[in-house]
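Hi C.,

You asked whether I'd gotten around to modeling the 528-residue construct. I have! Everything is below, sequence then structure, no commentary in between.
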Amino acid sequence: MGIGTGPLDLDRYPYMRAVWGALFAVLLVLAFPFRAGDLRFDLGIVAGWLALVPLLWMLEGMRPRAAFKWTTLAATLAYAAILFWLFVVVRVHGHAPVWAALGAPLLLGLVLGLHAGLAAALYVALAPWAGRAGVLLLPAAWVVGEHLRGFDLFGGFPWAYLGYAVHSDGPLVELAALGGVYGLSFLLACVASLCARNRFVLALALVAVAHALGFGLRVAHTGASGVEVGTRAALVQASIPQHEKWDAGLARQAFERHLALSRLAAAAGELDLIVWPESSVPVILETEPEYAEAVRSLARDTGATLVVGGIGLERVPLDPGYRLFNSVFVVKPDEGFVDRYDKSHLVPFGEYVPLRWVLGFLSGIATGLTAGDITRGSGPRVLRNLPEFGTDHALAAFICYEVIYPSLVRAAVRDGARILLNLTNDAWYGRTSAPHQFLAIAAMRSAEHGLPMLRAANTGVSAVVDAGGRVTSETPIFEQRALEVRVPPARPGPTLYTRFGDWVVWVSWGILIAIGGVRVVGRREHTH
């Protein structure tokens, strides 16, 4: 395949193949934010560049079937460790037995690991025919694998893409405006491919050029005539524990906490916008006039537009006579409720049970995860009936995991969004890696489109992200407060990624198809 096998010869030291596989798994885990209680670290700025190097060493001399098997195994263990917080979700809040809670991160890790195995098998199968393009082969295969797992199996799960590993590298994140997170994944895989071939000078040169380009993009936008938003906002983080959120006896207390924090923020200075987290109103507003009037009164008293998470209701002439939605309500000081956005990308087993006739039994294992099916909304869009914000300040809301899907955010941006809102409830995760991994993913959406983001999370991390993808202000988790901010300016005009979307993915497909074509032609000539 034209690469080395690492510092040691695999023929003399065959056990090194297992060592390289284990090192690949360890580096992949270290590439993403980690937290367990008070232990916290984020080494992606180093591990992200190196993670695929031992994978390439492990694959040297392998057949495609073996490459698929061993890469799937290593990647499954790595992704299960990255997603260990699922144990907390399923065991603590889902009330599932220990075996089911342990199986959750392993099962989802396997789904993600299978895509890594597919990328490895494609690489091994095509490498003998790649020639000088071999350095681009693994990056192309890896990006295609990441893209596929963003869409398959109940809507996909685009978590822990390699590009997110460098979320804290400011200049590098700027490049997301060109090629999105897939472009960063491709870049990191290219550097790893060069390192595995002992072409360290070229690898360092590529890293330097990438940083220089990113720094240049940042400087070019410094002081540019972007939208000077200046919108004064408060992000309410009431920190309602998950076991209290839907307790009928505590509903009023939780609601009053959101009201109190909002009034406290408004007393400190005039506000244009107050954002509450996902499902922060613990009742159906359409059927609870007392709660609805309290929200309207808050908007009137503060003079701010409210964007609050709650339960949407739609009555239908069918059994049971209604549909429920995970919704965002927009409430204006002078007009009251003016818009409702319904979540369009639902979480399987959390908001609905896919293939209920087959998988419905899982609800009986994790009884605390879902009480019934939430209805899917119509799709991402700009929030309506807010002329005072103007087209340059148009808001789009993304509820919880919707923000991890690049295509959903891009659809709203192309609909005219200029300020991104992410309303989420991360109480499920406790003091684990999930809130920090989630914030890193959300921030990448800002970098991709050159737009600011306001993130209101029930237990944190609530944050402000600027148009370059940098977190400029954030809250500690499980702290009660309202984060008062000025919305950073958006950058002028659509970014390359906004215009052309996942073009890096299609280039990656082109590389695989081209090398695959060479393989087919070469085999035919060989048989003749």
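If it helps when you're writing up: The chain has a mean pLDDT of 92.

Thanks,
B.
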